[in-house]
Amino acid sequence: MTRSLNISGIAYGGDYNPEQWPEEVWAEDMRLMTEAGVNMVSVNIFSWALLEPSEGVYDFSRLDRVLDMLYTHGIAADLATPTAAPPAWFFRSHPEALPVDRDGRRLSYGSRQTFCPSSPAYREAALRVARALGERYADHPAVVMWHVHNEYGCHNAECFCDTSAEAFRRWLRARYGDDLAALNDAWGTAFWSQWYYDWDEILPPRATGAVPNPTHRLDWRRFCSDELLSLCTAEREVLAEAAPAVPATTNFMVMYNFDALDYWRWAPELDVVSNDHYLRSTDPESEIDIAMSGDLVRSLAGNRPWLLMEHSTGAVNWQPVNRAKTAGELRRNALAHVARGADGIAYFQWRAAKAGAEQWHSAMLPHAGTDSVIWRDVVALGADLKALAEVRGSTGTAETAIVWDWDAKWALELPSQPSESIRHLELVRAWYEPLWRAGVAVDFVRPDADLSAYRLVLAPSLYLVDDAGAANLTAFAERGGTLAVGFHSGAVDENCHVRLGGYPGAFREALGVRTDELFPLLPGETVGLDAGGTGSLWSERVRPDGAEAVASYTNGPLAGVPAVMRHDHGTGTAWYLATLPDPDTLATLLERVRGEAGVRPVVSGVPEGIEAVRRRGPDADYLFLIDHRGDGAEVPVSADATELLTGKRLEAGTVTVPPGGVVVVREITTGPTGRS
Ligand code: GLA
């Protein structure tokens, strides 16, 4: 049974680490949190060493005072198990619990997130401290949620030691039904003399002299995700025994290279899905990254609301350059997450640290104190979130789905591919961008998801797909849906075995095409398209087999060969993009694809640069309009709407989005003029 978070309105706060400060400072923290409208903070995330000064000996006094103080001030606690940062004393008695890297070096303690996920000593110590916390605070009135660990998979998700090797073998035995022949077949070990005669011969994919076995590497990634998940669920169970009614979360990090976990497997194990998101200083359009991250997290949560557990008010000290936010960006960023389904907004961290590894990371209360732009923005955001209380619980409204699969991502990015320039996230983002610009609502789905709610399904990058996933996607088109597939999809099965007989293996029939040879393009190389624009990254010698050519190459070895194809399949349509068209061409193409599929933007006629997102509640829709370009706009809304941030009734049937600003419009959907 999923337990829900018992807090009213939108949660607002951040990581609160008062142990860094003398207690005199805490009183000021409470005063300022109240001023900013903070109603929930995450505590104890990395406090293991102070909480358990030596094995089995606890000092709860500080945490008792922190929780009591929060409760007195009406601030809820998301109480974390501190297991992401085992103390030095633990590693002195259990040096074998330190992780070993691929090259065989054992790492040292002195930072955080450094432990062997398969270490029995680590598991025992983590569950012990989790149990102690659960038992002590199960009934504490401030505690509304357990925050299990912190960002599993961040920094080090892998350990290559002998204990991990044993755990890997156990996992493999379960996967292959104790049948070594099945593993040899799946891994293709007849090649390069890799045949295994004994389970004990199998090792983690440690550094070796030449290209590793791809299926070995892929199974390793699956194992590493499952191994961490088993730690997470074990902690969750221990906490649930002590406090059956308190929901549990752990913070995901779905974007970037923190791709150690298959979050489709993780999300159902949690009561509340949470995510951390940080802007990349090199991304000129971070708003698109926020939107994509939010859509993916909401989808992981089953189109239920989720929490933004961490983001930044400004500088992010692990970026190459710690960029500050521009005027209004803090507000736009936070409300963009709410627009995509976040029912909570939290930052790393409450008060900027003066010492330690993150002393140059921004916070809600900056080094400069309250006489600062960040503080004023933080207080203003608190008021905004309060005004949006009724949005809580409302969900997304997409008719378009993008297929996202961690197995496919991991397999695509293994060494020795036809091109090492192909990156899953970049391809998905390339297809997502024009939809974002057009204001089209998008969900993310796994290949085997129920697709009945969608008109359009896009698979920009699905290198690996199993038979069930492929059948599900092609059946969607057959039954009248519109499916668009990107190049190098359907190429291999779940064991990374090439699907024979021509590419793109699993989708050949549905797409009505057959390719006999791949012609990936060099970095920076482009090839002309007769319908206009260019393609990059990829081309292939494809022969239509029922499909019609929509665009063909104008030059190069494949001049005259189709690059984009459309196929009537069953009662639906299937499109194949055998190259990556330049952004304008891709946008035009996807506009045609979605037009044919009958997918409309959230609001028609919204000027470019204004992000329009709708959340749907039982009695009202909430239309978020966010101006990223700075020009402002006048947008039509339904009669009798209200702008929630100002509380103004919009009697004129339009709303003004101020330059760089945000508006949230409540449109009533019940009654004679509404939805029902
Ligand atoms: C991660 C961690 C936090 C903090 C932030 C800083 O997301 O979870 O503890 O280090 O990064 O950006």
| CATH fold assignment of the largest domain | TIM Barrel
Bound molecules: alpha-D-galactopyranose
Terminus-to-terminus distance: 30 Å
Spatial order of the strands forming the largest sheet: 5-4-3-2-1-9-8-7-6
In total, the number of domains comes to 3
Task: State the low-pLDDT regions, or none.
Answer: none
Number of beta strands = 28
The main β sheet shows up as: 9 strands, parallel
CATH architecture of the largest domain, by name, is Alpha-Beta Barrel
How many whole angstroms does the radius of gyration measure?
26 Å
Number of helices, where a helix is a run of at least 4 consecutive DSSP H or I residues = 17
Reconstruct the topology from this structure:
Layout: E1 11-16, H1 23-36, E2 40-43, H2 48-51, H3 61-72, E3 76-80, H4 88-93, H5 120-137, E4 143-147, H6 162-175, H7 180-187, H8 214-242, E5 248-249, E6 251-252, H9 263-266, E7 274-276, H10 286-300, E8 306-310, H11 329-339, E9 342-347, H12 373-387, E10 400-403, H13 406-412, H14 424-437, E11 442-445, E12 456-459, H15 467-478, E13 482-486, H16 508-511, E14 513-518, E15 526-528, E16 534-536, E17 540-544, E18 548-552, E19 562-569, E20 572-577, E21 580-581, H17 583-597, E22 610-616, E23 620-627, E24 633-636, E25 641-643, E26 648-650, E27 654-657, E28 662-668
Parallel strand pairs: 1-2, 1-9, 2-3, 3-4, 4-5, 6-7, 7-8, 8-9, 10-11, 10-12, 12-13, 13-20
Antiparallel strand pairs: 14-17, 15-16, 16-21, 18-19, 19-20, 22-23, 23-28, 24-27, 25-26, 25-28
Helix pairs in contact: 5-8, 6-8, 10-11, 10-14, 11-12, 14-17
This protein binds alpha-D-galactopyranose.
